[in-house]
Amino acid sequence: MSLYPIPQIQYPAASPTTTLSFTLPPIKKAGPYGVADQELCGGVSLTLSGKKQVMWQRTDTFLHLIMDDVPWADMPAWQAFIDYALQGNTFLYWPDVAGTAYDEYWLEDSGGSARNQDSNSSVQLDAWNPVMGDRMHGRFELVLRLVPGGMHHT
What we know:
Layout: E1 8-11, E2 18-21, E3 37-46, E4 52-71, H1 75-85, E5 90-94, E6 102-109, E7 131-132, E8 137-146, E9 152-153
Antiparallel strand pairs: 1-2, 1-5, 3-4, 4-8, 5-6, 6-8, 6-9, 7-8
């Protein structure tokens, strides 16, 4: 039994049919659930007088998961989830399977490098390149983007 909350993912978000249960929690979390990376969407400029002018459109929220100790036996379930998420589909993330809080996300970045990436393109392709660490455990990082107006329960 873990001293830390064990998350889970359910997909598709509209009618959860598949559950991805984490064997171990992610490491190096930012803090309690709800405290996540935020990024301004809009524009920032300096006026002629030197004052900062912000044209705010929205704030995007990201959840960074560092999965450093995933048993290799769990990797087929993770592969199935990544196959689904790389298509831009949304899913529900529970920070604690024993709790009631969840939010709808999509996969923003799966930490891999796309070999067919066009350096002249403004569109970034996503890739998933997990590595096998010691003790036959997988390692990878995921960045989840909160779906604006998506399903949530706290």
